[in-house]
Design brief:
2 copies of one chain form a homodimer. Chain A is α+β, with helices and mostly antiparallel strands. Chain A has 3 helices and 7 strands; from the N terminus they run αββββαββαβ. In chain A, a hairpin with a 5-residue loop joins strand 1 and strand 2.
Chain lengths: 130, 130
Amino acid sequence: MPLAKLVHARFGTLSTVRPDGRPHSVPIVFAVVDGALVTAIDHKPKRSRRLVRLDNIRANPNVSVLVSNEDEDWTRLWWVRVDGTAEVRDEAGPDWVEALITKYPQYADRPPDGPWIVVTISHIAEWTYS
Amino acid sequence: MPLAKLVHARFGTLSTVRPDGRPHSVPIVFAVVDGALVTAIDHKPKRSRRLVRLDNIRANPNVSVLVSNEDEDWTRLWWVRVDGTAEVRDEAGPDWVEALITKYPQYADRPPDGPWIVVTISHIAEWTYS
């Protein structure tokens, strides 16, 4: 069940840790491919491709990805959190681009070309209100 | 503008860092009171009140709170991220309970009674697609 919620979640929050010990979080879109979570630095406007998240992962590969259901009816709240280790890659693995385009039609006209972050999942935690 | 988005956001993600250097994130509801961000450990079901987030903050007060607009129209995406230092308190400060009840009618029948996390904001970053 938590894996299904993760697979279908439209957005997640990727948290990394800066070299000085401060946390850093950004929203991401992602796909689960062969049990790993993959996300791309894509064409959404950014100041540069030298991003804090990439520098952080290169220095400390421990990451967390949180997906959550937000609802004003708090009995419907739930979240799933992945703990894992991340790696930055310049090239996409097999099926990564296709998985992201299938999940996100927004990518169809302009597929993500990386760099890529692939998260090897070490633990999945889940919380539901009820 | 980023402060207004923060003040009105219904949910946020609180990120802390574990003593072993791994990030930890949970969804929160919160209010901004006198320029600080306050959130309570409330009555939503949890395994215990001895929570990872509290232990993390006591060991490393650096936290990040992310609020974001999720939309399938990616041109409407935005996020605001607060960096700050957090403190765990057993007692609410003046106006904290009232601020949370005003923002969240869900709390009216059962006001949060803590423990509390108060985040002194040191930096606000903002991103918008367009």
